[in-house]
Design goal:
The chain folds into two domains: about 75-100 and about 105-260, Beta-galactosidase, Chain A, domain 5, CATH 2.70.98.10; about 265-650, alpha-1,2-mannosidases domains (Glycosyl hydrolase family fold, Up-down Bundle), CATH 1.20.1610. The longest helix is centred in the middle third of the chain and has 21 residues, at about 335-355. About 25% of the residues lie in helices and about 25% in strands. The strands form seven sheets. A ten-stranded antiparallel β-barrel has the order 3-4-9-10-11-15-8-7-6-5. By secondary structure, it is of the alpha+beta class. It contains 17 helices and 33 strands. It is globular and about 75 Å long.
Amino acid sequence: MDPFIGTAPNPEVKTDISVDTGNVYPGAVCPRGMVAWSPDTTHDKQIAGGYWYPDSAIEDFSLTHFSGRGVVCLEDVAFLPLVQPVGPSPGSAWSQYAAAFSHQNENASSGYYRVKFDNGIETELTATPRTGMARFTFPAQSSATLLIRANGAISVEGNNVSGHADWKGNRPKVYFYVQFDHPIKSVKTWIADKISDATAAQGMSSGVILTFDTSKAPVLQARAGISYTSQENAGDNLKQENGGWDFTALQNKAVALWNRELGRIGIEGGTDEAKKVFYTALYHCFIHPNFIDDANGQYIGMDNKVHAATPGHHQYQNIPAWDEHRSHAPLMAILAPEESSDVMQSLVNDAQQDGSVHPKGGGLPRWEQVNHNSGGMVGDGDDSIIATSYAFGATQFDTKGAWEAMDKGASQPGVTSGGPQVRGGLKDYLGLGYVPGSASITLEYDSDDFALSQFARSLGYQQKSSAYLDRAQNWKNLFDPSTGYIRPRLADGTWLEPFSPKSNKGFTEGSAAQYLWLVNFNLRGLIDKLGGNAKAIERLDYLFTKTNAGAGSEFAFMGNEPCEQVPWVYDFASAPWRTQDVVRRVQTELFTGQPNGLPGNDDAGALSSWYVFSALGLYPEIPGVAGFVVGSPVFPKATLHLDNGKTIQVIGGHASPDNRYVQSLKIDNRTYESPWIPWSILSKGGVIDFALGANPSQWGQDPQKAPPSFDGSPR
């Protein structure tokens, strides 16, 4: 496992720093941890994950980060150790004190990060779920200065520093409490470009400047706890999780937490490089969503009131629906159904808390962060997250409350969640059968409606299920037979002009060529509109002339979510060998063990979860339906350890980069001929046995055994 994978720009797509890099961070974090203590480097443009591998200087180590997002966020409460004193007029630019370093003097692993600056200071970081510990080793005979930036209120009392960092908007403060194992020698406050003496350290400030005597004990340790609820809870989190000064013991606890999660899938065989890529991807999948509840169970809700999580459960934050509904949510439901159920309940809690204080509220948050709906991206992806997670076995949540929030947001125009509308353009979508000017939003709503139909059916709401299944076919209103593409329409029914396959007007982070295939639940219907299997295969082959061409292209962009499901469409066109070939190309060309080894923003583990599934030879193509389309496994053997005590073994006989084609398949020693495997066959354990070879075979090409499609017809 290598946390540096995804910190450098991928050479295949050269567009913008916000999308051509994984935007992950290499610092210390625990699975789903609230604290992520990680370095922030000094690029001329801010990096969303805080760290950009080509940089050669670090300006601070901050306590919170988001893994893989395309916009800058978090990076609260930053620390920087210095050997030189800070001048009387430091200016407002924190980065002027950035320290140079070499990657040769830097390493990271699960729950641990280390770097030694060129000036001789060594920084080591580790974490618990809600706290972190730093170990700063200063050169002999040097002065020891530590800057702490909070952009809020800071108080220094004895060897303790506490306060809060202010967020913009109506999101809560980040409270922090820091303790040191050395006496603080002197304190000054930094407000913009002015330095004040210690008496000003009890109020608002940009940061504090602390000095320590390390002449006899050069290793300065700091432990920090945070909370979104209160100052007291930040201190209590520190007391509960990080009460001693044994850095190594704390690090070992973090490693144990990570081993539990990464051990959910065991890999045998394959190269060391392939294992590193796989386990790094799995590692990225378990970073988000994050706890927002404190050690005592308290958390700040979407109503800005303090609530308590049910004992034995957690309230979660950082749930980006557009990114996670495709492959991350089903992976977590399979591997960790109890935690996944808590995430579903967290969304229900968000909706109910919001509805209690806003007359039009009560919908699901599209991009939930802390206790706030940022409204990022498009669609109503929580519907797919909940329906798919439920289908795959994460069922321990308030399904009635979930359904009420889902149905409300999907059927009542103007319903909001934390301010933003749940479904913008819903009135037109209901009246016209599409959202004017946006094909991508229409397609997302169709997918969400299909997921709703499946969830309603599982709950016994048959009439609702049929209505949402019919509505999911709205994509047909945007299919233009004259061009063979799904296109945006205006409110008067005319097509949005100009148009080309490269067009991204009316498409979110993608083009018409890339979004054409976003009808996962009715690919048979789409393939028929394209002229049948042969025509669809021809179109797909052209799309995959390039695998990561960027958003404004007529070729594939596998570095972004809208293309995640596209390589698997070949299975529906009775050409599974083409899926096997294209997926292996994507894996080997775009996912590597180098810092540039992620093809785009990882977006809370979205791309990484795609890789995990694809390396197993499976993919959850249809939202709300528990099952997999089939590719081919990367490893000779993989074992999934399920929470019910059973295992799923994926055997990849003769698996290699060349041996990518399925010659035959057995499930539990019985011949299996379909490129679709229902979850019901595997949920109680089983063995999937692939025989692989270097040449395509006839396996899986029987049209009668193609994966299912749902067009609203009676079943």
